[in-house]
Structure formats: C-alpha cells, structure tokens
Amino acid sequence: MIHVLIERHIGADLESTYEAMARSTLQGAYQAVGFINGETFYDMNNPRHHYVLSKWRTLSDWQRWFQSDERRKMISQLGATLDGPEKITFLEN
C-alpha cells in the first residue's frame, strides 16, 4: 500500500473554484481501481497552500489513474487555478 501526497499552491482569488474542481477530481479517483481513500488539507497559515493525501493499493494503481484520460482532463481544468505545478510525493509505511 502507498500514500500519494499532492501539494498545490492556489492562485489568488481562485480558492473557491479550486475547491469545487479538486472535489470533483477526488470523486473521480474514488472510482479508480486500487484507490482506497483520500483526504484534502490546507495550510492554516496560508489557505492557498493545499494538500491531497490519497491511499492506493499499489504504485501501479496510482500510475494508471495518473495517466488516465479522466484525470488528465480534470487536471487540465484544475491547472488553471494553480500558481505553479503540483508536487507529488510517494510515501510508504
């Protein structure tokens, strides 16, 4: 089992747009093979700094979702709300 931590910086005045799109993206992940669960967080000192922590059965399951047309479409829309590229970190326990 792996955890995937996605770090995103949201553009000024785009927080509400980001929130709606991020929820939709996470809901799409719920349908993906190997997805276990996910949570979203934001930095209490900087509400434009967001994190998504998701749990996947395997790295291959995550990679399949990451490369899927569904995620690519969602991320292309979500990208318009970001202030820079997202940072993805893989964690294992």
Structure description:
The chain starts with a strand and ends with a strand. Strands 2-3-1-4 form a four-stranded antiparallel β-sheet. With 93 residues, it is α+β, with helices and mostly antiparallel strands. Helix 1 (15-30) runs antiparallel to helix 3. The radius of gyration is 13 Å and the shape is globular. It has one domain: Alpha-Beta Plaits (2-Layer Sandwich), CATH 3.30.70.100. The longest helix has 16 residues, at 15-30. The protein has three helices and four strands.
Key structural traits:
4 strands; globular; alpha+beta; four-stranded antiparallel beta sheet; Alpha-Beta Plaits; 93 residues
Topology of this structure?
Blueprint: E1 2-9, H1 15-30, E2 35-43, E3 46-56, H2 59-66, H3 69-78, E4 87-91
Antiparallel strand pairs: 1-3, 1-4, 2-3
Helix pairs in contact: 1-3
Write a brief caption for the model.
This protein has three helices and four strands, in the order E-H-E-E-H-H-E.
